[in-house]
Each structure stands twice: as structure tokens, then as C-alpha cells.
Amino acid sequence: MANAKIEVGVQLVQRWIVARLQERRFFSLAELNAVIRELLKAFNGKLTRHLDASWRELFKTLDRPSLKTLPATPYQYAKRVERKVGLHYQVAIAKHYCSVSYTLLKQKFWSRVTARTVEIFHEGQRVAAHVRTSGDRQHTTVTEHMPDRHPARSEARPKVSAPTPVPSST
């Protein structure tokens, strides 16, 4: 309902301004924009037929108090995708394989995919976050997501050698 009212308002402004521009000729975009700016000021100062107030006064009394400041961070488009964790604790998201904890094998989860990140949520909790790479069919694996017995995990840990026995002097 609100969208229809907004569209009608935009149409009203557009028709009012275009009607005043029809017989005029402009030689630059800057000149046209300056005239439109002045016509818009005049339109906003006009009294409305039913409300007995100008559009400017209505904005100041009704709309401006309801406005909020813009968020500090810009809006970032994100796509939501439901997936299931495979046997190798990897999930295919946006042509890329991302790891999650091996404890979530065969579990369903939701992922939030943006231009730069892939976040994985299980039962409302974020369980993994990866930087999104441009390479298709590549793997991003976090060592902590591997089971303790995984060979790659043991290679990632520093080797601790057993203490060498001290030879006896007898």
C-alpha cells in the first residue's frame, strides 16, 4: 500500500515538472538540472489540495522526525544457501569447498555468501568463516576443523621428539 502511494507521489512530481519543461530548449545537462532544481523547490512549496500544507511542511513535520541515520557500514548483498556437510567435512559453496568441523559431518547448515566472505551457520551459531577466493573448485581448510587423527593435522603440528636416553657411565 505504501509503495503505491510513493509511486503516485513520484508520478505527480514528474508530470508537474515535465509539463513545465515541454516547450523549453536546453543546451546542457547542467542547465536542465538547474531548472529542474528550481521547479522542484516550487513544487515542494505548493499547498496540497487536501492537507492544506505544502509538501515541504509535511516533510518537516511528518517524515523528518522518523528518519534515522544511515548505518556506518554500507549494505553488502548476501546470498543464503542451505547445504549438507560432506564426508570430508567440506561443503561446496559458490564453486568452492570450505571446511567445517568434522563433528558436523552429514549435518545441514545455512551459509551466508557475500562477495568477499563465506560464513557457515549451524543451528543459529556461526561455526566457520572463510575468505571467498576467486578460484573455482579449490579447497579452503582450517586445521582446527580436521579430526586429531588426520595426517595433514599431525603434519601441521610441531614435531616433539622423545628425549634421548642418557648413556650410563658404568
Question: Describe it for me?
Answer:
The chain is built from four helices and seven strands, in the order αααβββββββα. The protein is α+β, with helices and mostly antiparallel strands and 170 residues long. It has a four-stranded antiparallel sheet with strand order 1-4-5-6, with no helix packed on it. Strands 2-3-7 form a three-stranded mixed sheet, with no helix packed on it. The longest helix has 20 residues. The protein is elongated.
Describe the structure using short key phrases.
single chain, 170 residues, alpha+beta, 4-stranded antiparallel sheet, 3-stranded mixed sheet, 7 strands, elongated, disordered C terminus
Alpha-beta content class: alpha+beta
Overall 3D form: elongated
Helical content stands at: 25-40%
Radius of gyration: 32 Å
Question: Quick recap of the structure?
Answer:
By secondary structure, the chain is α+β, with helices and mostly antiparallel strands. It has helices at 2-21, 29-45, 55-63, 151-156, and strands at 79-84, 90-93, 96-99, 108-113, 117-122, 125-131, 139-140.
Helix-strand blueprint:
Layout: H1 2-21, H2 29-45, H3 55-63, E1 79-84, E2 90-93, E3 96-99, E4 108-113, E5 117-122, E6 125-131, E7 139-140, H4 151-156
Parallel strand pairs: 3-7
Antiparallel strand pairs: 1-4, 2-3, 4-5, 5-6
Helix pairs in contact: 1-2
